[in-house]
Amino acid sequence: MRFAGGIAIFAATVAGCGPTTASSSAEDLVPSEPTMINYGDPSQVNGLDVHTVTGDGPGDQRVHAVYPSLEGAPRLTGKLHRTVAEWLDRFNHGTLGNAPGEKAWETASPAHPEFNVDWQLAAVSSQVIGVRLRIGRSAGADWVEARTTVWYDRVDTRALDSDALLRGRPELAELAVLVKGRLAGSRPEVNPGVIRPEAELFDSLAFNPRGDLVVEFDDHQVASASHGRVAVAVPASEVGPLLSATGVRAQRAAVKAVAGMGAVSPQRTIRETSIPRPRAESSQAGSVDCAKAKCVALTYDDGPGPGTGRLLDVLGGHRARATFFSTGTNASAYPELLRRMMREGHLVGNHTWSHRDLTSLTDSKATDQIDRAQCAITRAIGQVPGLLRPPYGVTDGRTASVAGRLGLTLVGWSVDTGDERGADAKTVADRAVAGAGRGSVILLHDVRGSAVEATPDILRRLGRKGYTFVTVPELYGSQGMRAGGIYGSEGGPAAPGRPAMP
Ligand code: NI
């Protein structure tokens, strides 16, 4: 990572537990870095929910996008939804990469093109909320990211593009001049000549804790993608006269966050994460002997989400327990639901930070994806997850060794209910019941309405067949699960009472 004169060019590096619960990557962890944005803590925002978009069509594409909604702010939710849908549509039609300043779409595409969106809160106050979307996708052999920040003015209930932080066109032109000046001569790979006063180029504006305006560009817009994020901080004194009323509110929200609202102080986090934590275990582990009882493990991925609370009510009503593989981003947004899971005898496992295909990443990026989710979950539940479900169920020897080094056991599944590919609740329940056997691991998603709806039926029908619903490690009982090993899928180590599969 390098920076000079308010310009930052970052390469991805391995991060530990960062200073904010929603921190997006190592790029955000350098306190002296002027383009650092202090992200707000989503769990402190009333009425915030997270929506998940996954690819439910056929084909080899790996799609996972999350964005927040805010109760009472349908315009914000609608704008975020449209933004994600438009990018996804362009991805699906192969037209990404043709945007101004971007390289042409590469012809050599990977076997499984991937599309991934995660988000942070650029600022939160009673007057304004800023949602920064990070939109990544594979482009040939490369990984390319775009950044866009949508603002919601709570005073006049408008959802706005970033350029609305400025008074108007003349102010955008002035900002372009300021940014161009700062980029000029900064680094040879940056080309300030492409900077023009266009809203599309200035679609990710936010403020650092000092109130300086942070202008972020997409990969390829002003430098080649291999140089990562390019951002410029324009000092508050220069940018002040350019700001609209919403811009002033956004700036105040970012500065105020430092005074303690919404952001977690680095000092506190370092103390918290240096405390040794016990390995996560169900509070009811040991209450069932699966060598004797007919056990099955229900697993729910990708959450928590808006339906997870309802699902926990249903499971509790049937005295059934499950394993939840949570993403780090959602763990940050719903820490209380994770705590509730643990209180009620369920188990929380790791599903990576933002649901990337681990086999497509370098070891350090894969470690980063896993480790940041570990941090977010540990922070929520006070215990360290011991299980990892790799996104899309894809894994290889390298992923297993990375997981093993981090002390994690990989968990696959033996029954796929198809909920993620759009199956309705009845089909999801039928598949779960038809596929279940002693020691089965059943794949469901708590972000899918069909899976939540199907669960009462699954519990009733399998219950009648004499099944007990336990967490994944309980299936393996005293034989335990080995870090770096792959369990749960056909071909993996057999649970007691279940014959090994070829
Ligand atoms: Ni998943």
Question: Your description of this structure?
Answer:
The structure is a single chain. Helix content is 29%, strand content 21%. It has helices at 74-92, 169-183, 236-239, 245-258, 266-274, 308-317, 328-333, 335-343, 363-381, 397-405, 425-435, 449-464, 472-476; strands at residues 2-4, 7-9, 48-54, 62-70, 114-124, 128-139, 142-153, 158-160, 205-207, 213-217, 230-234, 295-301, 322-326, 347-350, 387-388, 409-411, 415-416, 441-445, 468-469, 486-487. The strands form four sheets. The protein has a six-stranded mixed sheet. Strands 12, 13, 14, 17, 18 and 19 form a six-stranded parallel sheet that branches. Residues 1-16, 19-31, 98-108 and 260-271 have low confidence and may be disordered. The structure holds nickel (II) ion (NI).
SSE blueprint:
Layout lengths: L1 E3 L2 E3 L38 E7 L7 E9 L3 H19 L21 E11 L3 E12 L2 E12 L4 E3 L8 H15 L21 E3 L5 E5 L12 E5 L1 H4 L5 H14 L7 H9 L20 E7 L6 H10 L4 E5 L1 H6 L1 H9 L3 E4 L12 H19 L5 E2 L8 H9 L3 E3 L3 E2 L8 H11 L5 E5 L3 H16 L3 E2 L2 H5 L9 E2 L15
Parallel strand pairs: 4-5, 12-13, 12-18, 12-19, 13-14, 15-16, 16-20, 17-18
Antiparallel strand pairs: 1-2, 2-11, 3-4, 5-6, 6-7, 7-8, 9-10, 10-11
Helix pairs in contact: 6-12, 8-9, 9-10, 11-12
This protein binds nickel (II) ion.
Largest sheet: 6 strands, mixed
Poorly predicted regions are: 1-16, 19-31, 98-108, 260-271
Our estimate of the beta-strand percent is 15-25%
Bound molecules: nickel (II) ion
